[in-house]
Amino acid sequence: MVREVTRTSRLRRLGFTDAPRAERLLADPAVAGVVAAAEAAGVPLPEALSETADPDQALLAVLRLVESAQEHALAGPVEAVLTRDGPHRRRLLAVLGASSALGDMLVAHPGDAALLHDHAGEETVLDLTPDDERARALRAVGADPDAPVPVATRTGEDGVATLRRTYRRRLLEIAAADVTSPDPLADLPRVAAAIADIVGGALDAALAVVRADQPGGAPDVRLAVIGMGKAGGRELNYISDVDVIYVCEPAPGSDLPEDEALAVGARLATQLARACSAVGTEPALWPLDANLRPEGKDGPLVRTVDSHVAYYERWAKGWEFQALVKARPVAGDRDLGAAYRDALEDFVWRAVEREHFVEEAQAMRRRVEDHVPAADADRQLKLGKGGLRDVEFTVQLLQLVHGRTDSSIRSGTTLEGLAQLAAGGYVSRDHAAELSHHYRFLRVLEHRIQLYRLRRSHVVPSAEADLRRLGRAMRTDGVDGAESLEARWRQVRREVRHLHEEIFYRPLLPLTARLSAEDVALTPDAAHARLRAIGYHDPDGALRHIAALTEGLSRRAAIQRQLLPVMLGWFAAGPEPDSGLLSFRKLSEAMGTTHWYLKLLRDSGVAAQRLAQVLSTSRYAAEALARLPEAVAWLDDNAELAPRGEAALAGELIALQGRRDQPVAGVMVARYLRRRELLRAALGEVLVTGGLDRSAGIVTTAADVALQGALRVAVAEATAEAGLGAPPSRYLVVAMGRLGGAEMSYASDADVLFVHDPLPGADPEVASRAAVSVASKVRSLLGETGPEPPLPVDAGLRPEGRNGPMIRTLGSYAEYYGRWVEPWERQALLRARPVAGDEDLAARFVELIDPLRYPDGGLGGAALRELRRIKARVESERMPRGVPPTRHLKLGPGGLSDVEWTVQLLQLRHAGAVPELRTPATLSALRALEAAGLVPAEEAARLAEAWSLASRIRNAIVLGTGRTTGQRIDVLPHESVELEVVARILGHGPGGRLDLEEGYLRAARRSRAVVEDLFYG
């Protein structure tokens, strides 16, 4: 009893699920001798069976095989195989464990076990050529492979049975090599090609057999069998419909009329199908499916080459051309098959030029998914999401779009085509490698499913026993059982689906398809004509840029050849296509061989088009991108264009400064962050992903953080220079002007006040010198020229203006404001906002100035008259000569200054009584004035419109021209090209410059009327 339990436990450990049954089978008299002999030879049979996919199934098949061999007087050879360790036994047992159907075949024909002998090992069985297989199959039916028209001598049922047996014997050899392969994923292409080749050989043999039934073999009738689908691509499954198209013509020199030749050809094709799939003494092979022929089931079974050409020329739909990518002569008349292929090749590779070809292909893929039965959808290996069709459709669509100008990517074999696409730069190497690996995995899984019963199936079973057998049969990619198979398969599905959606629905594909082949090929003559037609002012210069980007055999040049035909149109959609193309060339050259840059532009749904829009619209952004090219990646993700909060930026700055010892380096980090954020704001504004509030907020936050970083460095440096161990004062930087109102533009200076407060016990003289040093260093560190753009710091709004000290103590500010504060200083303090330094000092400073800017009694008559006088003086004296006042955005009537002075005057008069008016931001104050009933809604709307439009135009001038200094950034452009650029940045369509000009002048006139009412009374 103990020995019996021990044997049972051993069998369970070896992988037998029904150990008691296995023990009984091993003890069966038919195999007991074999089991004992193998044990005595030191190669136990149970251990050998444990290596198979299903040890229980394999053991039963061994018993049946031995019994059958005994009946056929072949016991000796079969038992000899089973009692010796080696490749022969491993192949035999592996087949028996993986395929019950092939096991049944071996039981029926035990002599076929000899086919798995060492001389027919995997090192040769997968390496025969299509011609080898054709010759072998034809000889089996007694036909001469070298004859112009092979005719079988074994005919009728005997010939059919022979060709079927020959096919299955070769299938057994292929399956044995496959299931014992140390790397089935690597060997998959050879296995699939070998199956396709024996199918081709069987078709040739079947045609030879059916010709024998025609008078003389019908030599006057040429018939070519064109393989479609996986048969045409040399990537067949173990069991599948074989898709074919027939081509028939009278033989050269024959007097046979064409209609009679076609009638004979139709009989041959019909009998050929019966030879392969009708009931007979040997089981049928597979159905021959001719439904991909012109007109499908309703069309004639055979056609001439000219008839095929006529159909595809006039009537064929897009999917029919996609199917022809895999068309390959597989049997019959080789020359006729080659003539068919050559005649249709041009149709295939120009099909993409048909209207909506890509969109229809994409829609067809969605329809295929929608028609998968709901019960199978989650386990469909072929048609479902993340299945084989996702890979195959992706490869075919890319081939059709790009193959018209690149003959190197036209393979009908999926994996070969994918490799060609990767080599040509149409798919990234990483994506191609991932798709290739996953496709092999799915195909091997499909093979293992079909191999079990040699039935056509593409559904992954859900039963535990089936999954266990499949997992053990795979033995690759970390799969060795049911659980690991399920997990790995689902992971593969997810990753295939992701890549399919990213590549198959790539926006460049339909756009490339709409271009002519000449435009896609970028031939100089065609490109020159197209460039001029779509709006380039210097086509010759553009051609030079194109040549520089696309010449050569590098992968970079190959991807540029894909991108540029479409991007040229996108550049032309902008106001300055020539400038955009030049900037793109400079950016591409700066990026060099950076692996992600061109891959992003090719694969992203939006990045390439956005980049073209930015470069052809904004010189400011183009120059900034050239200095920070990694920011191109932001164009693929709206989240990257979103504003960064002050806390996040300040934390990043502290971390970066902490890694730098030198003060200048510490401030350059702050200036770098500001430059980066200016670019972020510019990209968003050009791409219309945010309004004025967004860009002003980003620019202001960047300036705030830069001031914080500069103050931190300046304090540390001034303290060290003074020979002190700690700062002698607390310090504060107060934002003024547009910085204080969080309304900065790309060209704004940073208006500030500097404050310090000596610490108790500090020497006043030392503290004062250190404070002056701190203020000077903040200005110099941020304002000096260098590798990062400067931020000019202007302290001109301080007490006594430029004649007063750069920095004062809090007490000095209190004394000055208590004795000498002017109305204009009260007005300036409306925008005061602490941005850097000591928080307690900031609170005390605000407490000091609030009564000045928000006076309880409002503004006295004398102060009101003084502000009006100053405003009138500014209008008359500061307007630049030669500039029409109505076009000056800042000082002109109804412009920025008018609106801001009006709002600030009302704040001074009413903020003491209306707390909601206590805000440094112009539009916020204007909304509060409207809400308080101090400004009518219509007048508030006119002021807001003029101020916002003037601010946006100033920003757009900087963005469009790249100028950040000079008076021209404050003037509505006269020159039509510049005005058009500004208009496009502000969202106007082509030719919108007149609308912009009229719109601003109208808004300013209305604003001025309100200003004269509210400001001047």
UniProtKB/TrEMBL annotation:
<dbReference type="GO" id="GO:0047388">
    <property type="term" value="F:[glutamine synthetase]-adenylyl-L-tyrosine phosphorylase activity"/>
</dbReference>
<feature type="domain" description="Glutamate-ammonia ligase adenylyltransferase repeated">
    <location>
        <begin position="91"/>
        <end position="339"/>
    </location>
</feature>
<feature type="domain" description="PII-uridylyltransferase/Glutamine-synthetase adenylyltransferase">
    <location>
        <begin position="363"/>
        <end position="504"/>
    </location>
</feature>
<keyword id="KW-0067">ATP-binding</keyword>
<keyword id="KW-0460">Magnesium</keyword>
<dbReference type="GO" id="GO:0000820">
    <property type="term" value="P:regulation of glutamine family amino acid metabolic process"/>
</dbReference>
<keyword id="KW-0808">Transferase</keyword>
<feature type="domain" description="PII-uridylyltransferase/Glutamine-synthetase adenylyltransferase">
    <location>
        <begin position="885"/>
        <end position="1015"/>
    </location>
</feature>
<dbReference type="InterPro" id="IPR013546">
    <property type="entry name" value="PII_UdlTrfase/GS_AdlTrfase"/>
</dbReference>
<dbReference type="Pfam" id="PF08335">
    <property type="entry name" value="GlnD_UR_UTase"/>
</dbReference>
<dbReference type="InterPro" id="IPR005190">
    <property type="entry name" value="GlnE_rpt_dom"/>
</dbReference>
<dbReference type="GO" id="GO:0005524">
    <property type="term" value="F:ATP binding"/>
</dbReference>
<dbReference type="InterPro" id="IPR023057">
    <property type="entry name" value="GlnE"/>
</dbReference>
<dbReference type="InterPro" id="IPR043519">
    <property type="entry name" value="NT_sf"/>
</dbReference>
<keyword id="KW-0548">Nucleotidyltransferase</keyword>
<protein>
    <submittedName>
        <fullName>Bifunctional [glutamine synthetase] adenylyltransferase/[glutamine synthetase]-adenylyl-L-tyrosine phosphorylase</fullName>
        <ecNumber>2.7.7.42</ecNumber>
        <ecNumber>2.7.7.89</ecNumber>
    </submittedName>
</protein>
<keyword id="KW-0547">Nucleotide-binding</keyword>
<keyword id="KW-0511">Multifunctional enzyme</keyword>
<dbReference type="Pfam" id="PF03710">
    <property type="entry name" value="GlnE"/>
</dbReference>
<dbReference type="GO" id="GO:0005829">
    <property type="term" value="C:cytosol"/>
</dbReference>
<dbReference type="GO" id="GO:0008882">
    <property type="term" value="F:[glutamate-ammonia-ligase] adenylyltransferase activity"/>
</dbReference>
<feature type="domain" description="Glutamate-ammonia ligase adenylyltransferase repeated">
    <location>
        <begin position="609"/>
        <end position="846"/>
    </location>
</feature>
